[in-house]
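Take a look at the protein record below and tell me what you see:
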Amino acid sequence: MTRMRSIWAAAAIVVALSGSIGLQSVCAHHSFALYDMTRSVEVDGSVDKLEWSNPHCWLFIFVAGSDSATVSYGFEMSSVGEMTRRGWKKLLVKPGDKIKVKYHPLRDGRNGGLMMSVTMADGQTIGARS
């Protein structure tokens, strides 16, 4: 019985604190408001780096710009656990690998967005949501 009371007491504390720390900020963390979820775009580039970390992985690539300079793009991904379930591994892509990224673009026009999937040079698509 004591254990059950402890669980209920902990739950009550969480509910009470959520008002003081702002439950909106917790929910806003998972908002997709930064991205234009009505559009999907594809871009070809070469891998700069993959940040394999929680709470979100990040993929950075270099894309050839119009003046032959390279432009950096960054793509937010899901957590390590979710990416693993979607076929990703920490060493799946390496710097210099040629890939195509399908993504929801940032609303403000910056280079990057929310990654939907990656197509490898051999044509294999990784990471598509089921």
